[in-house]
Amino acid sequence: MKTIDEHIQKDQSEIQDAKAQGNDAKVRHLTDEIHSLEEYKDHHPEDKHDPNALELFCDANPDEPECRVYDD
User: Fold this and answer.
1) Boundaries of domain holding 47
2) What pLDDT is stored for residue 1 in this prediction?
3) Does residue 72 fall inside a structural domain?
4) What's the mean per-residue pLDDT of the chain?
5) What does each C-alpha distance from 16 to 28, 41, 53 come to in angstroms?
6) What is the SS3 string spanning the chain?
7) Is the predicted pLDDT of residue 71 greater than 90, yes or no?
8) Dihedral of CA 35/31/51/57: which sign?
9) Which of 14, 30, 46, 62 is the most buried (most CB within 10 A)?
10) How many domains does the chain have?
């Protein structure tokens, strides 16, 4: 996907499919993913790209070792 909005829309449609199939685990996973994407979008309103899992993690946990950025 190219934008975060496209990703959110895709996940919302997949939630409807998962609900129809009775796949509660997938519904929970996608709901959590949408929540993370919306938080990222709120924190970075100027950024429209679709963030990867590490970007979402680091947005929520900036002090974790894998998220630290060192300047030379």
Assistant:
1) 4-67
2) 73
3) no
4) 94
5) 12, 22, 22
6) CCEHHHHHHHHHHHHHHHHHHCCHHHHHHHHHHHHHHHHHHHHCCCCCECCCHHHHHHHHCCCCHHHCCCCC
7) no
8) positive
9) 30
10) 1
